[in-house]
Amino acid sequence: MNYIEIGKKEGATLISGGHPCREGNCAKGYFIEPTIFGEVTPEMRIAQEEIFGPVVSVIRVESLEDAVRIVNRTPYGLSSSIYTRDVNRSAVAERDLETGIVYINASTIGAEIQMPFGGIKQSGYGRKEAGGRGGALDTYSRWKVVYRDFSGKLQKAQIDK
Fold first, then answer.
1. Taking Cα atoms as reference points, which of 104, 98, 85, 83 lies closest to residue 146?
2. Which runs of consecutive H residues, i.e. helices, occur in the chain?
3. CA quadruple 151, 156, 160, 161: dihedral positive or negative?
4. What CA–CA distance (Å, rounded) separates 130 from 113?
5. pLDDT tens profile 24-45
6. Is 152 left (phi over 0), alpha (psi -120 to 50) or beta?
7. How is residue 35 annotated by DSSP?
8. Local confidence band at 115 (pLDDT 50, 70, 90 cut-offs)
9. Does the structure show a pLDDT above 80 at 23?
């Protein structure tokens, strides 16, 4: 809730949500409605910090290169996602995004247990978890996981039914 208030004070437009969920099963815990902010600038805290809540900050960009610069200017690098039908643009995103995981045509749903998981910059602490790899290769490597979906269909998160 503090980040939602910060977003409002910084001048972002609250498009949807932003309130505690008080109905049904979510009334039995500490849950927040899915929240969307518009008119967010890259310098705002809600665009610079890892909120780890159901809060999305929408930032308008001029180009893929502009989007990559904005992502890479944050002090964090857990995961990123790009939707495109252009394989060349997705390859540029894979190469240039400074995040531990890059999703192509899929949401940033978390991690796959069979792959090394962990971010970079302030999102990364120590060696990557999971994935069954280890030893010198992990010690002297910086891993990036890329997921690419060529189905042309919007994929749901793993937790969706």
1. 104
2. 2-9, 45-48, 64-72, 87-96, 136-139
3. negative
4. 6
5. 888 888 899 999 999 999 999 9
6. left
7. E
8. low
9. yes
